[in-house]
Specification:
This protein is of the alpha+beta class. The chain contains 15 helices and seven strands. Helix 5 crosses helix 8. The protein is elongated, with a radius of gyration of 22 Å. The N terminus is likely disordered. The structure holds FE2/S2 (inorganic) cluster (2 copies).
């Protein structure tokens, strides 16, 4: 018998037989994907192809054009989206930024995908503090890289990060026209430990000042001591419970409504399907 087309997926005979067995046992054979707080309707997920990227699924299947296609090979970060999963063992949500141009759409089965459209929008003056910071600090020019950069910062924020984490994790997002300084300023302005890094009385950031080695200003001397102490401690992203909450506390202080945004957006029915077995059953 020739291979058959089922829901746009080409199956070999063996696969069809195996799928039939799964279906008889009550297991589902179609993907379930959530995007920006809502379950994608079955008639759309059914059309996801096995060789389709998540980016193509979002842009072409759901008409969410905020995530951009730049390099198509995981190098520029223009396509960054956040994948959230419920970890049954720890009972916690796990958030991770991914390049949607590399991730297969069907690998998002059982996941919640947050795109730039789910984070905030100029409609109804509903910009997320990260987006506001990008605007206020002139972190965007042509705007092609901006959605990916905002989502990348948002993912770090979802994991309660600090300025050090931002510094270490933003290297996957390239910008060709703004330059990185305003983007970096916007990102770290949301962290509690940012103020001391932003500017000394001379108006220059101590850590980026070309005269750092010879400057005798108190701010520079203090910051040098702090950097040495930090480096002596350990080079981990989240260094202490105080640092761990740094970014979140700052966001809560500036915009309480956004404090638990990633958690609020996460669909509760994923959590309700609390075991792997029930998640795979068809009656979802
Ligand atoms: S399009 Fe460049 S990393 Fe995905
Ligand atoms: S704003 Fe144009 S590439 Fe970043």
């Amino acid at each position: 018998m020739a291979p058959r087309l089922r829901s746009n997926l080409l199956y070999e005979n063996d696969d069809i037989e195996r799928i039939g067995t799964f279906e008889k046992q009550g297991y589902r054979t179609e993907p379930i994907i959530y995007v920006n707080g809502n379950r994608v309707p079955d008639d759309i997920t059914e059309k996801a192809r096995s060789n389709q990227t998540l980016l193509s699924f979002l842009r072409d299947g759901l008409n969410l054009k905020g995530s951009k296609l730049g390099c198509a090979e995981g190098g520029c970060g223009a396509c960054t989206v956040m994948i959230s999963k419920y970890d049954v063992e720890s009972g916690e949500l796990k958030h991770i930024a991914v390049n949607a141009c590399l991730m297969p759409a069907l690998a998002a089965d059982g996941c919640h995908v947050t795109t730039i459209e789910g984070i905030g929008s100029v409609k109804d003056d509903n910009l997320h503090p990260i987006q506001k910071a990008m605007v206020e600090m002139h972190g965007s020019q042509c705007g092609f890289c901006t959605p990916g950069i905002v989502v990348a910062i948002y993912s770090l924020y979802a994991n309660n990060c600090n300025t050090k984490a931002i510094e270490e994790h933003m290297d996957g997002n390239l910008c060709r026209c703004t330059g990185y300084r305003p983007i970096w300023d916007a990102a770290r302005s949301l962290c509690d430990d940012a103020e001391e890094l932003v500017r000394g009385p001379c108006g220059t950031s101590c850590r980026e000042c070309p005269e750092r080695d010879i400057c005798e200003q108190d701010c520079n001397l203090e910051d040098k001591k702090k950097v040495t102490a930090d480096e002596d401690e350990q080079k981990v992203i989240v260094t202490s419970s105080k640092d761990k909450m740094a970014m979140k506390k700052s966001l809560i202080a500036s915009s309480p409504d956004w404090a638990d945004h990633p958690e609020k957006l996460f669909p509760s029915d994923i959590i309700d399907a609390s075991s792997a077995d029930s998640w795979l059953l068809r009656n979802h």
